[in-house]
Amino acid sequence: MAIQQxxxxxxxxxxxxxxxxxxxxxxxxARQEEKKGGYPGGRFKRFFDTYKANTSGLMTANxxxxxxxxxxxxxxxxxxxxxxxxxxxxxxxxxEDIPYLMSDIGIGLSSGxxxxxxxxxxxxxxxxxxxxxxxxxxxxxxxxxxxxYIDTKLIWGESFxxxxxxxxxxxxxxxxxxFFRGVKKYWKEMVIVFLGYGIFFAGGVNLILEFVDGVWSxxxxxxxxxxxxxxxxxxxxxxxxxxxxxxxxxxxxxTLNLSQKLKNAVLYTIxxxxxxxxxxxxxxxxxxxxxxxxxxVTILIGMLLIALGMTFxxxxxxxxxxxxxxxxxxxxxxxxxxxxxxxxxKEKKKKDVKPTQPVKYKKKK
Length: 365
Description:
It contains 12 helices and 2 strands. 73% of the residues lie in helices and 2% in strands. It has a two-stranded antiparallel ribbon with strand order 1-2. 26% of the residues are buried.
């Protein structure tokens, strides 16, 4: 009986996966050159080999992307310089000086605020920070358009616009030219994708902060527990969808519209949740270290992320998206083409075959 139940479950799972696979919007990739074939050594080797072979170019792309990350960097710098506590007091109108965390000690001997009040002021700062970060993510979409375009060309092995190096005489890729070409070509869809995620990100985090507000105020009510649940769900769902969607803006430019790309990103997330979350941890894990409340550590991590962060994140996203495209979407597309050509051949054969005419015999006189 147990074997039969397992077989039924496996059958249902297989049918569900087949239904999802049949729901994909299939189309050819927006390649400008012929496909180079499989990469020996697998995807991880491709990532590290691509990074090593193009370090200087990718650092240039990273620096250009940082121009569009300045709003987010400005928020991080302000928090690092002033501190969340002092900014909280400033927003509350208590001035720049940090007040004494004292109240009601004796008669007329102290005037200050309680620790809980101070924490709630800081919470207001974090609300503002994440709202600003949501807007900053939308602006970052301009830079992402250029960077992901370069990453896609590198992963696909396509050629770049080049210039002659005067010293060596070798052809050197013009990364800045390619970057701004990508910005010009893909910024509209990329900004929509990044701004959409920024709104969900800021909304989800602020719902979680609403729950924290309730806990620090003396006890979260039912609505605040519900806010925690909804906020966590929003982040857990929208982040992998965004991760799978952004590279498709370049790789399926004009072969699929944005709604089709979004549908495919949702299907990728449902079919491959664990690999997607693992890649997200690799791509964004370093940014979580910024939460360490030590100035020296924050500065060191910040400098490392400024030098390499964008490249590391976007190259992982592009490499993973190409893996899914190669193994799922392009396989489905090739199967569809094969099926269509088979049908066309059958129809052609039917047209070529002429109906046989009945033979007429003459009677002898």
